[in-house]
UniProtKB/TrEMBL annotation:
The keyword Membrane does not apply. Keywords: NADP, Oxidoreductase. It comes from Actinomadura violacea. It holds the Pfam family adh_short. InterPro entries: NAD(P)-bd_dom_sf (IPR036291), Sc_DH/Rdtase_CS (IPR020904), SDR_fam (IPR002347). Belongs to the short-chain dehydrogenases/reductases (SDR) family. Coiled coil: none annotated. The lineage of its organism: Bacteria, Bacillati, Actinomycetota, Actinomycetes, Streptosporangiales. This is SDR family NAD(P)-dependent oxidoreductase.
């Protein structure tokens, strides 16, 4: 049985990733900050609820102690798509808050779960990023979100390089502009964005690592 943990999974892309992984036969651990939301979403997705705030060291330590083996970690939890800000006037407290969830949260959780991932014969880490973090086409918008996702991409490259000898594949995935609470109306279906993440979560041994992808195709760094 493949065991997968998805963070920020009580709605949107995270919830749909849980659904798709469960449909593939994975035992899915659905992480969410609110216990009631986790319970409700887990019933909907066919998953097991896990109360997990990635900014809480206590939560992360508890989950790491409870997970014996882990095959797939999807770092999906993210906040603050700050369309109202520009870098010249950005509130740096907002930037710091975004980094706590979007960068330090995945970093902390990946560190804590590495022993469990190393017990897997097919470890996978997927960091849900965004094309907004692509330096090739970057503008001035959403500075808190964008800067945190650029840093997450860098973290992806570093973990991939370190964990390559262990056979753990680490990749960043852009799900595209998806019609979610964060993305707003007009985006593509949630199922399509989630499928992009699931692709990286289910890569075969010998698949790519240290890459940035959307729909299985490279995104410019």
């Amino acid at each position: 049985m493949t065991i997968s943990l998805v963070t920020g999974a009580n709605r949107g892309i995270g919830l749909e990733v849980c659904r798709q992984l469960a449909a593939r036969g994975h035992e899915v651990l659905l992480g969410a900050r609110d216990p009631a939301a986790a319970e409700r979403a887990a019933k909907e997705a066919g998953a097991t609820p896990v109360v997990l705030d990635v900014t809480s060291a206590a939560d992360v330590e508890r989950v790491a102690a409870e997970v014996g083996r882990l095959d797939v970690l999807v770092n999906n939890a993210a906040i603050t798509y700050d369309t109202w800000q520009r870098p010249s006037t950005a509130d740096l407290d907002v930037v710091r808050d975004a980094a706590e969830t979007n960068l330090y949260g995945p970093w902390r959780l990946t560190q804590a779960l590495l022993p469990a991932l190393r017990r897997s014969a097919h470890g996978r880490v997927v960091n849900v990023s965004s094309e907004a973090a692509s330096l090739a086409g970057m503008g001035s918008g959403t500075p808190a979100y964008t800067a945190s996702k650029v840093a997450l991409n860098a973290l992806t490259k570093m973990f991939a390089a370190e964990l390559r000898p262990d056979g753990i594949l680490v990749n960043a995935v852009c799900p595209g502009w998806v019609a979610t609470d964060m993305g707003g109306p007009g985006g593509r279906p949630v199922a399509d964005g989630a499928a992009s993440v699931v692709w990286a979560a289910t890569l075969p041994d010998g698949g790519p690592t240290g890459g940035f992808f959307r729909d299985g195709r490279p995104v410019p760094w």
